[in-house]
Design a protein that fits this description.
Layout lengths: L30 E7 L9 E3 L3 E5 L5 E2 L10 E6 L2 E6 L7 E3 L2 E2 L6 E2 L5 E4 L2 E7 L16 H11 L8 E4 L6 H9 L6 E5 L7 H7 E2 L10 E2 L1 H5 L3 E5 L6 H13 L1 E3 L6 E3 L3 E6 L3 H6 L5 H7 L6 E2 L10 H9 L8 H9 L5 H16 L11 H11 L18 H10 L4 H8 L3 H11 L3 H5 L3
Parallel strand pairs: 3-4, 12-19, 12-20, 13-16, 16-19
Antiparallel strand pairs: 1-2, 1-11, 3-5, 5-6, 6-9, 7-8, 7-10, 10-11, 14-15, 17-18
Helix pairs in contact: 5-7, 8-10, 9-11, 12-13, 13-14
């Protein structure tokens, strides 16, 4: 299942797992930890649910792991009024970290959704909500809650004929998802980068040319004709020039097209699947994308928004295997912890590059932190010097999003909603709602230096 490279220019979107709880929800809330790396490969992927408490160690009734470097009872996760906390079970428990920061004996650390816990040579991910251990979905493999959410969204659209738009940050696997949508179609999968559809070449590329239309031209089928009953994949939709947008809209409205220089109308039977890292709502607002074309493409529902890799920490191991042919066991616990802590701005494409580079540097030896690129290793190194959270500390309160705070973040991030949301510790969608409520002009912020 290959992943295809995607350009990294333009305004990116940020995927949200809104149906997945990111904190305790009601008295019956659930949580779990998933093993993503340990000395016994058979235990990778195993989950342990939090009841009132969950003990982790070599000889416990809860999360029992065959890591010889663990204490018999190494650490415990407890329910607390505000959520869940992590603490070492004994002062003898060594080599323990929470999100890269050392976990000191006696300290009790509040846990947030997606936190990375490393105990000796075992790396785990904490999640609120029940674990997803059912088989991989055809649309996108993975166990992360954000992946399962988009798979549920995609279910009703896998075998349809209506257009589908896939959005997500660069490198999240949009062409992989498009091929999954195309798998049920009888015809071929034909792809084009929309930036190529410029000027008079747009109609020729999409519809082809009739014999004799131009001097010396024998006639050539276009992309719609090549796709036939299959799928026409329009990559980088947000980069489509205005003239090509008008041509595509006409086909979507009428269902027919003609070769350049020809008179015979042909009916389009290909399914349109498009992908973009551009926020089309913003693009429409600034006049870069046609509102009517967006409406036609969205007529079967809103776009499918792929989550970034940093929201799929549970699935790092499987993607490393898919992209670089390496097992998680090829990495030391420290190196894998560094991978889990890194934010992956270029997502799967960057993961592939990092894994291959590290493998090349390590040769036949286990891949350690020293074999990782500096940009990846430094994230864990910085976390190591953070002071541990004091005993009985409470989770950080939600950020206060007043006008002054939001405007300052937007200015610092050049008007980028994604970067500003990350800076403020909130979601992109929440930040958009706050901007609307406060009357903040995001586009004006984009134009500021």
């Amino acid at each position: 299942m290959p992943i295809f490279p995607e350009p990294s220019t333009g305004d990116v979107t940020g995927a949200l797992a809104e149906s997945h709880p990111t904190g305790p929800t009601g008295p019956g809330w659930t949580a779990h930890v998933r093993v993503v790396h340990t000395v016994d490969p058979a235990l990778v992927g195993q989950t342990f649910e939090l009841q009132d408490s969950l003990r982790i160690g070599r000889r416990v009734d809860g999360a029992r792991l065959s890591d010889p470097a663990l204490s018999r009872t190494h650490a415990e996760i407890h329910r607390s009024p505000g959520g869940a906390t992590l603490a070492l079970s004994t002062p003898r428990a060594r080599r323990s970290w929470h999100d890269g920061a050392p976990l000191a004996p006696g300290a009790r650390r509040p846990l947030a959704d997606g936190d990375v816990i490393r105990l000796a040579d075992t790396v785990l991910v904490f999640r609120f909500g029940p674990p997803a251990d059912d088989p991989d979905h055809r649309f996108m493999p993975g166990r992360a809650p954000a992946v399962r959410r988009i798979c549920r969204e995609a279910d009703a659209r896998l075998d349809g004929a209506e257009p589908v738009v896939i959005v997500g940050e660069t490198g999240t696997g949009k062409e992989f998802a498009a091929r999954a949508l195309a798998a049920g179609r009888p015809g071929p999968f034909v792809a084009i980068n929309c930036a190529e559809l410029r000027g008079g070449a747009a109609a020729q590329k999409l519809f082809g040319t009739a014999p004799g239309a131009f001097t010396g031209v024998q006639g050539r089928p276009g992309l719609f004709e090549q796709a036939a009953d299959g799928t026409l994949f329009l990559d980088e939709l947000g980069e489509m020039p205005p003239e090509a947008q008008a041509i595509l809209l006409r086909v979507l409205e009428t269902g027919v097209y003609r070769r350049e220089g020809g008179e015979r109308a042909q009916r389009s039977t290909a399914r349109i699947v498009a992908a973009t890292h551009v926020d089309l709502d913003v693009a429409v607002g600034v006049g870069r994308f046609r509102r009517d074309l967006r409406a036609r493409l969205y007529r079967d529902g809103l776009p499918i928004e792929l989550p970034p890799l940093r929201a799929r920490i549970e699935d790092l191991g499987r993607w490393i295997g898919e992209l670089a042919g390496l097992e998680p066991a090829a990495f030391t616990a420290g190196a894998f912890e560094a991978l889990a802590l890194y934010p992956w701005p270029e997502n799967l494409r960057e993961l592939q590059s990092v894994a291959r580079t590290a493998h090349r540097r390590a040769g036949d030896r286990p891949i350690g932190s020293r074999h990782l690129p500096d940009a990846v290793a430094v994230v864990r190194a910085r976390a190591r010097v953070v002071d541990p959270t004091p005993v009985h500390s409470k989770p950080c309160p939600a950020p206060v999003l007043d006008r002054e705070t939001v405007e300052a973040a937007l200015k610092a991030c050049g008007g980028s909603i994604r970067a500003s949301a990350a800076r403020l510790g909130t979601s992109r969608r929440t930040l958009r709602r706050v901007c609307e409520r406060l009357g903040i002009d995001v586009e004006a912020a984009r134009g500021q230096d």
